[in-house]
Batch of 3 targets.
Target 1
Amino acid sequence: MSQAQPVSYQDHEVTAFNPPRPEQQLASANIIPLRGRRVALPVMLDGPKADALLATLIHSPLGVYIRATTSTKRDEICVTLDIAREDLDFTLHTLISTLPEGTIGMLTTRGVMRAE
C-alpha cells in the first residue's frame, strides 16, 4: 500500500499520492494496433447508366467508403473506395451483388493511387 508524502512547494504544502502500479509485462502478441492499414479500390462505372450506378453505390452500405477523388471521363465514372484490409471480403461481396455492371480495378495501398 502506498502512503501520502508531504511535498513543499514555495510555502505551500501539497500531499502527493502515488498509487501502486502493478508490474505487467505484455507480450508483443497482446498489443493491438489502433488502426490497420487501408487500401484503395477503384471501381469503374461506364455506359449510359453510369449516373444511376453511382447513385446506387452512394446509397449502398459502401457509400461511406467513397473517397473524394472520384473522376469522370466521357461515359465513365471512376470511384475510389478507401477501405480497411479487413473489410475487403465484405466490400467485394457487396460490390458484386450491388453493382454487377461495375468493373473492379487493382487494389493498391492508400496514398499510391493517383487522381487523374
Target 2
Amino acid sequence: MNVKFLLGSVCILCMVCLMSGISIAENLDVPTQHGTVSWYELLTTDVDAAIKFYTQILGWTTEESPLPDGSKYVLIKLNGKPVGGIMKTPPHAQGVPPYWGLYVTVNDVDAAAQQVQELGGKILVPPTDLPENTRFCVIQDPQGAVIEIITYRQKEQ
C-alpha cells in the first residue's frame, strides 16, 4: 500500500475539521476509549455513486465540505453526528482500488507504535502530530493488514 497515499488520506480528516471549525475529539464526538474504532473513511473513484449506495442501504446522511484543491470531502452522519467520510481517490493514488480505512483510538500512539514493532508489525507512517491535539500512526500487522491508530487529546484550558 502506498504510504504517501495513506498519509494524505489521514490528513484529509484533520484538514476538513480545521476548515469547518470542527474540533475532532470534542465536536465530532468520536469515541476516545482505547481500542474503539473512531472514524471510517472511504476513498473511491465515484463519490456520488458511493453516497447514493450507502445512504440507501445504511440510512446515513451526508454533508459536503469543500477542500482547498476544489475537491470535496463528504462527512457521513448517523443520527446527525459525523462518523466518517467519503472522498475521491487523490491523484497521487490513482490505480489504488476503492477501500474503507478505519481509525482505532489508542491511549498513547507512541507506546502503541513501539508495541507494534515488538510484536513483529511495521510502522508505515510514524507517530505524527496533527492539528487539534491529535496524533496518529499507520501500522501494518505481521500478516500485512494496514490500519491507522489515533489518539485524540483534549485541548488544554
Target 3
Amino acid sequence: MEEMNKDTQKEPLTADEMTAEEVADQTSETTETNEGVTDEEAQNEEKDPLEAAQEEIADLKDKYLRQIAEFDNYRKRTLKERAELILNGGEKVITSLLPVLDDMERALESGRKTDDPQILREGMELIYNKLEKVLEQNGVSKIDTTNADFDTDIHEAVAMVPGMGDDKKGKVIDCLATGYKLNDKVIRHAKVAVGQ
C-alpha cells in the first residue's frame, strides 16, 4: 500500500524528465494565464472611473434625448389626429343630412309649379319626418316635456304661470322650444312655461 501511495504522490517532473510535448503544454497554459491577467489589468488601467462615468453619462444622455424626441413625435401626431377629428368629425352627420337638403330643393322647385297648399304641406311633413329619422340615427333625441316635472338639468324656464292650482305647481305647462339630447347629453334645454 505504501508503494501505491508513493506512485500516486509523484513529485513534479524536472525539465529533463518531461517530454517536449508536456513542456509545450505547460508553457502555453502559463502564458495564457499571464496574458489573461495582463489584459484585465490593462483594461482596468485604461478605464479609470472618470472615463467610465463619462461614457455612462453620454449613454444616458443619448437615451434621454431619444425619449424626448419620441415623446415629441407622439405629441405632434396626436395633435394632428385631434385637429383632423375636429375638422372632419361632423362628416358622417353632414353626409346623412345631404339627402334631406336634396328633398328640400325638390320641394321648393315643385312649390313654384303648384298652388295647392295641401301638396306643399305633405311634402314638408315628409321632409320633416326624414330629418327626424336622420337625427335619431345620429343619436339625437327630443326631450319629452308632456306632463313632466320641471327639471333644471333638461328644462329652461322662460315663463312662470300663476294660478294653475297645486297639482300643476312645479310642472311643465307648455313647451315653447323643444330640447334635444345627443347620446344622453343635453345639447339644447327645452324652453318651457312652469306652473306656480
